[in-house]
């Protein structure tokens, strides 16, 4: 407990928020290239598993590019047995994946605690793994790193496969993390991954076969002191039959394992879906309690002699086991379909020992046979032929029937029709169909008309109807976030139009078409209008203009006018003295300040009462005022100022007319 606490405290990521969204919690597991944490998605308020790549991987630009590409491909996988990928990100060089959180244990825990498992239980655990791989292979995705640590078993027993595409992203770089990956998973690598690094669906089939071997025996098929020795064994040695360690395992289970793990990829099933069908056939035989099923074993394994005959090779060694076996001789390899030649390995073939025995004990010519012995031999051969024919009829024609046509039927009706033929049905994971209505059978396994054992089981794939996805709400999201949201529902980004917006910040989606919640086919395009931010507006210089004209022009441009009035000796009243700013650009609703002239400042009117008219006029004129003379009604002709308006001491603008009354 103390060690765990100290580890959490020393982990610099615990408690940190990545990409402004994921708050990192307790460490769940640590591997050769990444550490998994429990984390809180603060945006959606849910617990996720955060797989954080080890420091240094984010520095490799090529790895970063492939990491993003493979993560996006994995995110498109939607299957109940696949750990969902929600998001990927790069937080200042820290690469991470946000994935579905699956509380429970791994298949490694099951092997450690329970293996060796009974064949039926081992196949039941392998079946959902193959179901997940089938969905991936159908989508053109190869896992490349199938191992017990990547198979999760939730608390309710659901089996899920994790890390699709991640191995490809890592192994394409020169980073030392690649070596850690190969060393950590070398026990499950297909030979072609060791020799030339190439991989396809059959490479995953090989790894699945190794998983099955380990479930059945509790051991890995190849061991060594170093990873190189183990890798060498995968390339140069066949996986032995599990019954060598667990003698009770039926031959057809041995054949299934050896066919899936054939060193030549052309011998293996073409993909996980083909292997899944074979697993169901073997599982059905186990349910019947058959200790052996020659017909099923024969379908999975082609005998040595038949391989040689099919390949056209015959040098007498095949017919009579005479002479030295060729160096490019063939070995017994389980496969289905066509012949295959593999390098001769004395340890895997008893012909060398047989030849030595023949040389130490020369064959002597047989004496002439009597007619009676010939008749006995004929009867024996006839009886053997009858026995073989009867067995072939029983294990072949007698035990099998044809799969009825159940497509376009409701599952209940399909089950009834299958029951009439003595067959059972089971529901397989549903699929999408453009032609078969929702709720009806779109596919069966085996296919209609294929051979199926009497009282066997038909897998029904029920249609979910046409594959459609609703357009998510994208308004207000950043462009990258909007693209990820579309990819998560198998839609693509269409035309991107940049436009100004007075309300949406730059780089975020203003609007989109088709509109929110529209149902679209996978791969349909959604067009985005992305904000450039507010539109810049050129500020006109309106200094010296009448304030009414200046205010009208600024408001029309979208600005807010802030007016201040003041006296000015030079600018006439009502005109703009100054403007801030008076050039450059602003945005709508930004403020422009105007200073408006109130004309010159007020002056005090001089006192001219009792002065001679001539003197009064001079005083007022010198003070900047105009003079108007009016005579009193009782004018005496004295030309003395008896009154003035404005009165003495009053404030008035220069140029104001002062009326003087004379007597």
TrEMBL record:
Swiss-Prot/TrEMBL keywords: ATP-binding, Kinase, Membrane, Nucleotide-binding, Serine/threonine-protein kinase, Transferase, Transmembrane, Transmembrane helix
Organism of this sequence: Kribbella alba
Location of the Protein kinase domain: 22-286
Pfam family membership, one: PASTA
Domain of life, per lineage: Bacteria
Gene3D superfamilies reported in the protein's UniProt record: 3.30.10.20, Phosphorylase Kinase, domain 1, Transferase(Phosphotransferase) domain 1
Protein name: non-specific serine/threonine protein kinase
Domain spans labelled PASTA: 401-464, 465-532, 533-598, 599-663
Listed EC numbers: 2.7.11.1
PROSITE patterns for this protein: PASTA, PROTEIN_KINASE_DOM, PROTEIN_KINASE_ST
Transmembrane feature ranges: 374-395
EC category name: transferase
Metal-binding in keyword set: no
Keyword Repeat: no
Cross-referenced NCBIfam families: PknB_PASTA_kin
Molecular functions (GO terms): kinase activity
Recorded catalytic activity of this chain's protein: L-seryl-[protein] + ATP = O-phospho-L-seryl-[protein] + ADP + H(+); L-threonyl-[protein] + ATP = O-phospho-L-threonyl-[protein] + ADP + H(+)
């Amino acid at each position: 407990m103390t060690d765990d606490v100290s580890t959490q405290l020393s982990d610099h990521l615990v408690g940190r928020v990545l990409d402004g969204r994921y708050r990192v919690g307790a460490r769940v597991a640590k591997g050769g290239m990444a550490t998994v944490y429990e984390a809180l998605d603060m945006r959606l308020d849910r617990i996720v598993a955060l797989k954080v790549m080890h420091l240094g991987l984010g520095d490799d630009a090529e790895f970063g590019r492939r990491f993003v590409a493979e993560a996006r491909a994995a995110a498109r996988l939607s299957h109940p047995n696949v750990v969902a990928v929600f998001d990927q990100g790069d937080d200042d060089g820290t690469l991470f994946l946000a994935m579905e959180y699956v509380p429970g244990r791994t298949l490694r825990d099951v092997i450690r605690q329970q293996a060796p498992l009974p064949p039926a239980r081992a196949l039941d655990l392998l079946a959902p793994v193959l179901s997940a791989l089938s969905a991936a292979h159908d989508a053109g995705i190869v896992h490349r790193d199938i191992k017990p640590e990547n198979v999760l078993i939730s608390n309710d027993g659901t089996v899920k496969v994790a890390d699709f595409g991640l191995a490809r992203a890592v192994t394409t770089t020169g980073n030392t993390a690649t070596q850690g990956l190969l060393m950590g998973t070398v026990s499950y690598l297909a030979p072609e991954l060791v020799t030339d690094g190439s991989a396809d669906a059959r490479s995953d089939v090989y790894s699945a076969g190794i998983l099955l071997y380990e479930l059945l025996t509790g051991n890995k098929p190849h061991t060594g002191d170093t990873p190189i020795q183990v890798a060498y064994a995968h390339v140069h040695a066949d996986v032995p039959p599990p019954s060598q360690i667990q003698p009770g395992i039926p031959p057809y289970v041995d054949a299934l394992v050896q066919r899936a793990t054939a060193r030549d990829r052309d011998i293996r099933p073409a993909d996980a879906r083909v292997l899944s069908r074979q697993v169901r056939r073997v599982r059905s035989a186990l349910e019947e309690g058959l200790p052996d099923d020659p017909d099923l074993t024969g379908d999975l394994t082609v005998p040595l002699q038949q391989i040689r005959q099919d390949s056209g090779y015959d040098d007498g060694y095949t017919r009579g086991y005479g002479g030295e076996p060729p160096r490019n001789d063939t070995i017994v390899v389980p496969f289905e379909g066509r012949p295959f030649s593999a390098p001769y390995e004395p340890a895997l073939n008893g012909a060398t020992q047989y030849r030595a025995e023949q040389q130490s004990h020369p064959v002597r010519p047989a004496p002439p046979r009597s007619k009676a012995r010939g008749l006995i031999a004929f009867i024996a051969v006839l009886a053997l032929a009858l026995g073989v024919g009867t067995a072939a009829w029983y294990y072949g024609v007698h035990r099998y029937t044809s799969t009825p046509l159940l497509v376009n039927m409701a599952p209940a009706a399909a089950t009834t029709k299958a029951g009439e033929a003595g067959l059972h049905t089971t529901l397989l994971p549903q699929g999408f169909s453009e032609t078969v209505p929702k709720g009806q059978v779109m596919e069966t396994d085996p296919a209609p008309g294929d051979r199926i054992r009497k009282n066997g089981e038909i897998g029904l794939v029920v249609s979910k109807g046409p594959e459609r996805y609703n357009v998510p709400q994208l308004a207000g999201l950043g462009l990258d976030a909007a693209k990820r949201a579309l990819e998560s529902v198998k839609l693509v980004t269409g035309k991107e139009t940049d436009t100004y917006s007075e309300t949406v910040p730059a780089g975020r989606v203003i609007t989109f078409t088709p509109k929110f919640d529209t149902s679209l086919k996978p791969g349909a395009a959604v067009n985005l209008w992305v904000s450039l931010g507010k539109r810049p507006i050129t500020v006109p210089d309106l200094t010296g203009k009448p304030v009414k004209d200046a205010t009208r022009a600024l408001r029309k441009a979208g600005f807010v006018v802030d007016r201040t009035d003041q006296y000015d000796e030079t600018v006439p009243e009502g005109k703009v003295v100054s403007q801030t700013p008076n050039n450059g650009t602003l945005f709508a609703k930004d403020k422009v300040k105007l200073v408006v002239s109130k004309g010159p400042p007020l002056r005090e009117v001089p006192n001219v009462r009792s002065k001679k008219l001539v003197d009064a006029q001079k005083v007022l004129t010198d003070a900047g005022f105009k003079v108007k003379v009016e005579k009193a009604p009782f004018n005496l002709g004295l030309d003395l100022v008896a009154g003035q308006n404005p009165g003495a001491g009053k404030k008035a603008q220069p140029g104001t007319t002062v009326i003087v009354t004379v007597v």
